Amino acid sequence: MKQSYTMDNSLDFLLYQSIYFSMFSIFFNLLLLLGMFGSWVYQKGVACESNDGVMTERFKKTSLTYNKLVLVCCVAFSALSSVLLLSSCFHLHANGWDRNKLMNLLDLLFAALSWGVISFYLYRNGQKFPFLLRVWWVIYFMVSCCSLWVDIVLYKKQELESLHLLIYHAVAVTVGLFLSYSCFQKKQGEGERINLLEEPLLNGGAEEEVVTPFSNASFLSHMSFSWMGSLIALGNEKIIDSEDVPQVDGSDRAEKLFSIFRSKLDWDDGERNITTFKLIKALFFSARRDILFSTLFAFVYTLSCYVAPYLMDTFVQYLNGNRQYSNEGFVLVTTFFVAKLVECQARRNWYFRLQKGGIGMRSVLVSMIYEKGLTLPCHSNQGHTSGEIINLMTVDAERISAFSWYMHDPWILVLQINLALLILYRSLGLGSVVAFAATFLVMLGNIPLAKLEEKFQGNLMESKDERMKKTSEVLLNMRILKLQGWEMKFLSKILGLRRVEATWLKKFVYNSAGISSVLWAAPSFVSATAFGACMLLKIPLESGKILAALATFRILQTPIYKLPDTISMIVQTKVSLDRIATFLCLDDLQQDVVERLSSGSSKIDVEVSNGAFSWDESSPIPTLRDISFKIPRGMNVAICGTVGSGKSSLLSSILGEVPKISGDLKVCGSKAYIAQSPWIQSGKVEENILFGKPMQREWYERVLEACSLNKDLEVLPFRDQTVIGERGINLSGGQKQRIQIARALYQNADIYLFDDPFSAVDAHTGSHLFREVLLGLLRNKTVIYVTHQLEFLPEADLILVMKDGTITQAGKYKEILDSGTDFMELVGAHTDALAAVNLFEKGYETAQSATGKEKKVSDDEDNKQEEDLGATPKGQLVQEEEREKGKVGFAVYQKYMSLAYGGALVPVILVVQSLFQILNIGSNYWMAWVTPVSKDVKPPVSGSTLIIVYVVLATASSVCILVRAMLAAMTGFKIATELFNQMHLRVFRASMSFFDATPIGRILNRASTDQSAVDLRLPSQFSNLLVTAINILGIIGVMGQVAWQVLIVFIPVIAACTWYRQYYISAARELARLSGISRSPLVQHFSETLSGITTIRSFDQEPRFRSDIMRLNDCYSRLRFHAISAMEWLCFRLDLLSTAAFALSLVILVSIPEGVINPSFAGLAVTYALNLNSLQATLIWTLCDLENKMISVERMLQYIDIPSEPPLVIESTRPEKSWPSCGEITICNLQVRYGAHLPMVLHGLTCTFPGGLKTGIVGRTGCGKSTLIQTLFRIVEPTAGEIRIDGVNILTIGLHDLRSRLSIIPQDPTMFEGTVRSNLDPLEEHSDEQIWEALDKCQLGDEVRKKDLKLDSPVSENGQNWSVGQRQLVCLGRVLLKRSKVLVLDEATASVDTATDNLIQETLRQHFSDCTVITIAHRISSVIDSDMVLLLDQGLIKEHDSPAKLLEDKSSSFSKLVAEYTATSDSRFRRSC
Questions:
Q1: Alpha-carbon span 492 to 749, nearest angstrom
Q2: Is pLDDT at 1380 greater than 60 in this prediction?
Q3: Cα–Cα distance measured from residue 1382 to residue 581, given in angstroms and rounded to the nearest whole number
Q4: What is the model's pLDDT at position 639?
Q5: Among 464, 664, 822, 1345, which is most buried by a count of CB atoms within 10 Å?
Q6: In terms of C-beta distances under 8 Å and separation of at least 24 residues, what long-range contacts does 276-284 make, across chains too?
Q7: How large is the average pLDDT for residues 318-329?
C-alpha cells in the first residue's frame, strides 16, 4: 500500500507540477545551444588549415536524400515551435500571464532556437550526424514521450491548459522517433557515390553511364521528389552542363518505348493503314504506366478538393457558436489540413506522371516519324517536303507531348461537376439542379467556338508547314540568293507566307480569348442563376450554405477556366495526330524492286531483265524502259549519255530507289554509292569516312592516299579531326567529292556505283582518282560509273550509252565506236574540245616536259571557306550553340513588352484585371454580408436586391475579363509578329559567315519551336501570371481584413517560397536552356538524314542512323525529364508551405474568442484560402515556367542582334541604270582575310580584267580563286584595297545595286520549289516570250514544251525532279535573261556532258561576246579559248596573260597544266583506237 501511495504521489506530482518538464526541456535546449556554440568556435579555429573544396564538401553533404529529410524535419519542427510561440504570445496577452504559461512560452522559444540551430548545422555539415547530437535526439524523444503522456492524462481530466501543447508534443514524439531511427542507420555516403559527376573517377575512369536517381529512389523519395535534390544543389554550386544531367531509366529510353509503340501500331505487319485511333492506342500503351498512375492521383486529388466545401457550412456554424462537441474546431482544422496534404501530394505526382508520359510519347513519335522518313521513297517527298516532315517532329510531336497536361481534364470535369452537385444539393436543394443546367449551358455554348478553333488550328498548321518548307529551302540556298541579290525577294515571300499564317493565328487567339472570357464569367453566371433560383423557390439562403456553394464554385472554377485551353489542346492534338497518321500512311519504298542475293552466292553481281522503272508510276512513259544487261563480278562498267538521258536514274534503280513497273532486277552483295551532289554529314572528317565502321588504320591510310586527301588534311586546322560544317560548308566541292569517295572505299563493298564523281575535280585529280581508285583499289570489285569525261571510257569493260531512258548501245569502247550515232556524237564533241585545246598548243612541244612532272596545279573548285581552312588553327568552324548563362535578364522582358505598342497596353491590362478581382471579391462579400448566418436572423436586404446587386457586380467583372482577354490576345499577337519580322530580317541580312558557321537546324528551331512558343504559349503564360498574382493579393487582403494575425503567418511563408524559388531557379533555368539547345541537333540530324536518304540506304546504314536518333532523343528526354522534375520538386515544397500557412490560419481563426470576428466573413476568408496553396504554387510555377519560355524570346533576340551586311542601297552613291556599260574590272592592292585575327588570304592583288573579254582563273586549292570571286560580289569584304567596275568603287555602293548588276552560274546548280517560270525569273521582270527564248538558248526549250503545264510545270523541293545537268542549264537560262555586262562562271559546266558543254560555250560566245566573262573551270577546253588567263598561287598573282603567250613559255604553270590535260585525254583516246 505504501508503495502504491508513493507511486500515486509521484504521478500527481508529475501531473500537477508539469512545469518541471518545461524547465528540464529549457535546460536541455540550453545545453545543446552551448555545445553547438563551442563546436562552431572550434571549427572556426581550424577552418584556415583546410578550406580547400569547401563548396564541394558542402555539396556532398547536402546531396544525400536521407540526410535532407532529416534537415527538412528539423526545419519544419523549428517553424512549428516558432508559430506556436507567436500564437501563445497573443493568447497570453489577451488572457493574462501565470508561471506555468510563462515556462511553456520559454520552452517554445528555446525549442525554436535549438531546432533552428540544428537545421543550420545540418545544412552546413550534414554528411554525418555527430555522436552527441544523436544522444540528444534520443533523450529528446524520451522527454517528448513523457510530456505527451502527461498531456494526454491531463486532457482526459479536462485540466490541460491548451490543446496546442498536446498537438505540439505529439509532433515532437513523431519527430523524435524519426530522428532516433536515423541515428542507428548506416552512415550515408561511405563508399557510395555522392556526386553525380564523380562516379567515373571513382570507377577508375570507366565511362559508366549515370542513371537518374529516380530509377532506384525510395517510396518516400518519390513522393517528396527528394531524389532531385542533388542536381538542384549542384545548380546552386555551378552552371549545369549537359554532362551533369544523368540518363533516364532504361524503361523510359526511346528504344524501349519505340519497340512497344511499334508492336501496338502493328507496324511490322507491313500494312500502312494507320488511323488516328490506332495511333492513340499505341501511344497509350507506350506510356500506360505513367497514364494509369496519373489517373489514380488525379482521382484522389479531385476527391480531396471537395472535403473543405463539404465541411464549410459546419465550420461557419462553429464560428457562430453552434458547436456539436468540444474541440470541434481543432478536429475541423485537422480534417482541412489532412485533406490539403493529400491534395498537395496527389496533384504534384499527377502532374509529374503526366509530363513524364508526355516526354515518352514525344520520344516515340519522333522515332516513328524518323523511321518513316528512312523508308519513304524519294518521289513521295513531292507530297511531303523535308520542311513539312521536320515540322511534324518539332511542332506536332511536341504538341501531343504538351497535351499530356490536359489528358484527364474531360473526365475530371465530369467528376467534379457531380461532386459539386452533391455539395450544392446539400446546401441549395433544388437550386443545384438549376446550377447544373447553367453549367451545362455554358459548356454547350462552347461547342461552336470549339469547332471554329479546330478549323483555325488546322489552317494555322498548314500555313506554318508552307512557311517552314520555304524557309528551309531558302536557308539551304542562301549563298546563291545573296550572289544573285534575291534574298530580299525571297524574304518577302516568307513574310507573305507568314501573313497568311498570321491571319489564322489572329483568328485563333481572338477565338481563344472569346472562349476564355465566357468561361471566366461562367462561375459568376452559374452562382447567380443558382441563387436566383433559390429565391424563386423560397429556399432560405444562409451564409454557411452560400459560402459552401461559393467554395464549390471556386473549385469548379479551375477546370472550367482550363476548359478553353483543354478544348484548344484537344483540337490542336487531334489535328497533329491526323497529320502524323496521314504521313505514316504514305507508301513505303518498294521492297520488291531489287532481289537481293548474299555476297558470293552468284557470279553475276547485277542483272536486269526487261526492266521498266518510273519515278512517276502514273506516267504513261516510264523513266527507264527496255533495260536489260548483266554485270559479272569484277567488271568495270561505264554509263554515258547526254543530259537527262536517265544515267542517274539507272543507278538509282539498281539501288532500289526507283519504283519498278516491270521486269527483274537482281543485285548480289553489298553496295556503296557515290552521289553526283556530295552528301556530307556534320561532324569530323574521320567520322564521315568511317561512316559507322571501326577504325582500321592501315586501310584508312590507303584510302586517304588513293583519294588524294592527305594534302587537304594537312591544310585543315585539325586534320581529319576537323569538324565539317553543315552540308560540308567549309570544304571545297572537290574535297567534298573526294571525302564521299573515301567513305565508299572504306566500306570495302562488293559493288560500287559512281554517279559522275569526277565532275567536281580538275583533270589531274580526276585522272589520279580514276587510276588509284577505279583501276587500283577497286580493280577486283564490280564498279558502275556514270561519267561525262569520255577519256575514262576506254578502260571500261562495258559501256552503256543511254538516250531518252533506254540503253541505245552497249559494249566495249572499240565495239560501239562505229555501231551507232549516239556514242559518236559524244565522242565527236569530246574530240572537238581537244582540237580546240590543241589549236592553242600548235607549234609548241610541251607534253614531254610536263607529263612526268610531279608538280601540278590542282584546280579543285573552292567553296567560300576553302581559303579559310588553313586560317583557323585555334577553333572549329561550327561551334557549340551559344546559350546565355544565369537568369534571363530584365532587358529581355523589357524588349519583349515594348514590341507591342511600346508596352502601352500592359498597364491597361493590369488595371482591368485588378478591377475584375475587386468586383469579384465585392460580389462575394456582398453575398456573405447580406445573407444571415442562421434562419433565425432576418436578412438586411430583400431577396431581389441581393440578386440584382450580385448580378450587376458579376456582369461588370465579366466585362473586365472580356476586355482583358482581348487586350492580352492583341498584345501577344503584335509581339509575335514583330519578333518574327525582326528576326527574319536580320537573319536574311546576315553575312554568309553566319550561315557557314550556323547549322540550319538552329535557325529552323527558332523559326518553328521558339516562334510557336511566342505565338501561343507566352501570351497565355503572362496572362496566367497576372491573374494568379492579383488573385493571391486578393486572398491575402480578404484574410487579413478578417484576422490581421494571419498576415504574420504569411510573411515567413512568402519568404520561404521566395528562397525556394531562388534556390531552384539556377538549376531549372539551365536545364530549360539545355533542353532547348538539345532540340537543334535532333532537327539537324533529321534534316541531314532526309537530304542524304539515298546514300544512307545504299550503304544499309539505317540501323545506325536509327540508333543515332534514339540517342539524340534520349539526350533531349533526360534534360526535359529533369527540368520538369525540378519544377515538381519546387511545387511540392511550395504546396507544403501553403498548406502549413492555411492550417495555421485556421488555427488562428478557431483560437479567436467567439464574437470577435464575423463568422460569415471568416468563412469567406477560408473559402478563398482553400485555393491559396494551388494559387501560390501556380504563381511560382508560372514564374519559373515563364522564365523558361522566355528563353525562346532570348534565343530569338540573339538572332535579332547578329551583325548585318553593309546596306543594300546607298541612295547618295547609286550607280546609273546602264552601269556597268563596259564591264572593265580593276583590282588595286586587294587584301582579304576572313577574320580580324586571321592571316591574309589575298595579298595585295593588282590586275585588270578588260571589258568585253573572257578571263579564265586557275590555281590550286587555297590559292584564292573563290575568295576573289566572293570579294567581287562582296560576300567577303576586303581588308584593304579596292575593286572598281567601270570606274565605280564597288565598296561605295549598296550590295543590291552591285549584285543585281552582276551574273553568276555557280558550281552547285540550285532550283527552288515552284514552277519553271519562277525559277528562271524569280523577280518577275520578264515576259513569257523572253523566258522561252532563254530556254531555247540553253537547250531546255524542247524539254519544257513536252510538259503539260509548260512554263507552269512544277519544280519540286531543291529541283529533285530535274537532273543535275538540267538544273545547271536552268542556271544558264537565268543569266541569259539577266543579260549582265559581267558574268562569272564558277565551274558552270561540271555536271553536263561534253557535247552540252560545247553548246553552252557556243551560247556564251554568241550572246556574251561583248561582256566581261570570268571563268573558273576544270575542263581546259572551257578556259583555253579565254582572252586572258589569271593563275593564282597562295593569294598572289603568279601568271596573268593571254593563253597563247603563256603557252609559248614552256616553263609556265599554265602550259604544264594544258599539256597534262591533253596528254592524259589524248593518250587514252589514241590507245583505244
A1: 48
A2: yes
A3: 52
A4: 87
A5: 464
A6: 276/574, 276/577, 276/578, 276/581, 278/581, 279/577, 279/580, 279/581, 279/584, 280/577, 282/364, 283/361, 283/364, 283/365, 283/400
A7: 71
Please list, in sequence order, all residues whose beta carbon lies within 8 angstroms of the beta carbon of residue 943, skipping any fewer than 6 positions away. 535, 541
Determine if residue 267 is left, alpha or beta; phi over 0 gives left, psi from -120 to 50 gives alpha, anything else beta. Answer: alpha
Distances (CA, A) of 1096 to 377, 699, 1089, 1292, 1356: 13, 22, 8, 48, 21
* Cell numbers that stand for 1023 in this block: 496572362
Comparison of pLDDT for 799 and 828, the residue scoring more: 799
Q: How far is CA 253 from CA 247, 835, 1114, 1117, in A?
A: 9, 65, 6, 8
- Partnered with residue 1305 across adjacent β-strands are 1385
Q: Cell 485537422 appears where?
A: 334
User: What length does the chain have?
Assistant: 1473
What is the maximum alpha-carbon separation in the chain? 145
C-alpha cell at 620: 504513261
Give the whole-angstrom CA distance, residue 82 versus residue 497.
Answer: 63
Spatial neighbors of 1080 by CB under 8 A, at least 6 apart, are 881, 999, 1001, 1002, 1005
Q: Give the separation between CA 867 and CA 1327, rounded to whole angstroms.
A: 41
Task: Check if the beta carbon of residue 655 is closer than 8 Å to that of residue 596.
Answer: no
Nearest to 189 by CA among 57, 321, 307: 57
One-letter amino acid identity for 149? W
- The beta-carbon contacts of 1317-1322 under 8 Å, at least 24 apart in sequence, are 1317/1351, 1317/1352, 1318/1355, 1319/1355, 1319/1359, 1319/1370, 1319/1374, 1320/1370, 1320/1373, 1320/1374, 1320/1377, 1321/1374, 1321/1377, 1322/484, 1322/486, 1322/489, 1322/490
Provide the pLDDT confidence category of residue 794 given band limits of 50, 70 and 90. confident
Helices (H) and strands (E) in the chain, counts: 53, 24
What DSSP element (H or E) covers 1240? strand 1240-1249
| Owner of C-alpha cell 432560405 | 540
pLDDT score for 985: 92
Q: For position 56, what pLDDT does the model report?
A: 38
Predicted confidence band of residue 500 (pLDDT cuts 50, 70, 90): very high
3-class DSSP assignment, residue 612 = strand
Give the per-residue pLDDT at 9.
43
Name the grid cell of 828.
Answer: 565527236
Is the pTM here over 0.85, yes or no? no
CB half-sphere exposure, 667, CA atoms < 13 A: 23
Please list, in sequence order, all residues whose beta carbon lies within 8 angstroms of the beta carbon of residue 679, skipping any fewer than 6 positions away: 740, 1091, 1092, 1095
The rounded mean pLDDT for the chain is 76
* Contacts (Cβ under 8 Å, ≥6 apart) of 991: 1203, 1204, 1205, 1275
In sequence order, the 6+-apart residues with CB closer than 8 A to the CB of 138 are 180, 183
The answer to whether 674 and 757 have CB atoms below 8 angstroms apart is yes
Rg (CA), the chain: 40
Other Cβ atoms closer than 10 A to 404: 26
Residue 14 pLDDT exceeds 50: no
* DSSP annotation string for 619-651: -SS-SEEEEEEEEETT-EEEEEESTTSSHHHHH
Half-sphere exposure of 1169 (CA within 13 A, CB side): 34
**pLDDT classification of 874: cutoffs 50, 70, 90:** very low
Rounded CA-CA distance 1448/1466 in Å is 21
* Nearest Cα residue to 1137 out of 1067, 1035, 1055, 1064: 1055
Per the CB < 8 A criterion, the answer to whether 1436 and 1241 are in contact is no
CA distance 591 to 595: 9
Q: Are 631 and 1073 within 8 A, CB to CB?
A: no
Exposed/middle/buried for residue 621 (C-beta within 10 Å: 0-12, 13-18, 19+): exposed
Q: 209-220 burial, b if ≥16 CB within 10 A, otherwise e?
A: ebebbbeebeee
Calpha distance 1037→922 (Å, rounded): 12
End-to-end CA distance of the chain: 138
pLDDT of residue 1276: 86
